[in-house]
Specification:
This protein has 135 residues and is α+β, with helices and mostly antiparallel strands. Helix content is 28%, strand content 24%. The structure holds tetrahydrodeoxyuridine. Tetrahydrodeoxyuridine binds next to helix 2.
Length: 135
């Protein structure tokens, strides 16, 4: 499965998405790109970019806007995620965003890391998930 993922294309897509960032405060353009498997089994690629606000704490990370795009484009499960700056540097999802992407990819979701692609058990060990909620 890992071998089937075109990581270079996903990284380029993330860098391209970062060009759309609204980041006048941090000046860090962030792009996220994900390979998604839709409910119909079809693979597609979605993206997100960070969108900041003058009220700094209201800024949205690229992974969060990508989660919106996941659902706006039909839903499904995240298979692989790459995050890059507009300049092309690899960026790891922040702690909050690790939880956000875990919601839609679970433990088998692969993330591009400085060590290469790793699954979410590496990126977010001992993760909190819906199984901890009362039924
Ligand atoms: N940022 C993201 O978009 N994703 C992350 O996982 C880390 C941080 C954004 C938020 C803010 O707009 C800028 O990067 C600087 O923190």
């Amino acid at each position: 499965m890992t071998a089937d993922i075109d990581w270079e294309a996903l990284r380029r897509t993330a860098i391209n998405a970062a060009q759309s960032a609204y980041c006048p405060y941090s000046r860090l353009q962030v792009g996220a790109a994900a390979l998604v498997r839709g409910a119909d089994g079809q693979l597609r690629v979605i993206t997100g970019c960070n969108v900041e606000n003058a009220s700094y704490g209201l800024g949205a990370c690229a992974e969060v806007t990508m989660a919106g795009q996941l659902h706006l484009s039909g839903g499904g499960a995240l298979v692989a995620v790459a995050c890059r700056s507009g300049a092309g540097e690899l960026l790891m999802p922040c702690g909050r965003c690790r939880q956000v992407i875990y919601e839609f990819g679970g433990p088998s979701l692969l993330v591009d890391t400085p060590e290469g692609p790793r699954d979410m058990t590496w990126v977010l060990p001992a993760a909190f998930g819906p199984e901890f909620l009362p039924t």
